[in-house]
């Protein structure tokens, strides 16, 4: 019998059985499709050697007028601006006390300091910076006190605890001489409340991080500190506007910066801001075409401080400080007519898509006198969370509840060949964490999500819109930013590092880099609908190693046989005929002789070595019928 060319349909299909999917791929990890054939994805490397605090869920790049490149980094604890690999903390200050409002108390032999400040408003894990303190008399010196601290425990509304440390971060233990209170000039500058790193549904028991309140204490999910911390941000020229979801709107002015960077300030408190400037929102966007600042789910100008979750307001054109709608400006508002809240908004080249919990709307600049118009384009449409959508030119793709959707002039369900695989193993309790990003170099949209057994983003699913193919894998990334200002995509890990993606061949989270275990496995192949046994005696591999860093790259071709669709792959041998064959394939491997027998077989390609990049071609096998017994 002549050699049989093994060619498979692009993409992975898990909507049927492996046996019924003959001619397709059935399983994979860290593999993509390009020009119809699978290849290993690119590696990653740390962007810099410095780390940030918290879990990053927001990245935004821009370039200042002087050519400086900035990257906004929003975590559940802080907001940073990354410049040249250094993370500059610009987290806003919510309150600065009067001198003497803060006092300290130490206990001999303990590193825990009790801080007293009436109605401090702080939560566990919040940050406060002290200044003006004097020594407590012993080991707790002025240098120990006058620095930034993270609150370790909130005792009550008037007191909390911190762990004393020196300026290098080493814990300091008080001695018997530490009997002072820090003096009458102590000032505490409190940063805005931190947010949660894990979604908590409902109120009462467990509605907050472990130990955030007293034993068994309840919490309200309406407070910004008791929600999953999600930032939205956009640059207004060379400046930056940032927003805590369901929290304040802040402004960072590039022209006032020096080393160290000054902190962002509340937009409504800037000089020149009118009295109707919104103080709370779900999301902010700067409209690129017409230079309006858009605030979604914000407070109305007639009731500042009270959030309307369906209200959209926009500033005067070219002026983020004027929000009072007058005949002499272009400020104004719109209210979405369906749903209970705005979930998110996604800007495209021509319009902005606005998602509520039950509908989708398009918002467009139409000029005076109305400035913007909004139209509902779909109802009974879901979205998994505020980070679950991404735009590719004028097309928007997003993950909904049990479905994927695409907007390309109309809203449609996106056929998905791995839908059951994704949603049958999905932690809906952490749906807000789903994050979507584009990888335009490979025509891909990625969604990172939590599997059913995980509270962290540990899986991904990819739609390749050029190939119209789906594939998936396991990778922990909490945020993804496509290439643009940077040559490579940038993603955030759970370890406090940013990573350059599609960089090299290996996992650069360790030093030295480790191998990426990538593989793809086909569905079953048989002869005559499995009527005859298949005997395979020769394999002609076809794989390229272009782009490999290793001088001797190797992948394994694994051929697995079985006798029935529901049977396991066989590993034993009978009459010297194997049931499984693992064949190392090098760059110049011409052919491999085998002895493999079964009613059907599957092909798996796997690489586990460093420096390897591979791409499959069209391998051939010498197979022939071998009887029915």
Distance between the termini: 20 Å
- Unreliable spans are 203-222
Number of helices: 2
CATH architectural designation of the domain at 4-41 and 517-625: Sandwich
User: How many strands, what sense, and barrel or not for the largest sheet?
Assistant: 6 strands, antiparallel
Radius of gyration using CA atoms only? 29 Å
How many strands in all?
A: 51
CATH class of the domain at 4-41 and 517-625: Mainly Beta
Structure description:
The structure is a single chain. With 629 residues, the protein is mainly β. Among the domains are: 4-41 and 517-625, Sandwich (Jelly Rolls), CATH 2.60.120; 93-191, Elongation Factor Tu (Ef-tu), domain 3 (Beta Barrel), CATH 2.40.30. It has two helices and 51 strands. The strands form 13 sheets. Strands 2, 42, 43, 46, 47 and 49 form a six-stranded antiparallel beta sheet that branches. The longest helix has 5 residues, at 419-423. The chain is globular, with a radius of gyration of 29 Å. The model is unreliable at 203-222 (pLDDT under 50).
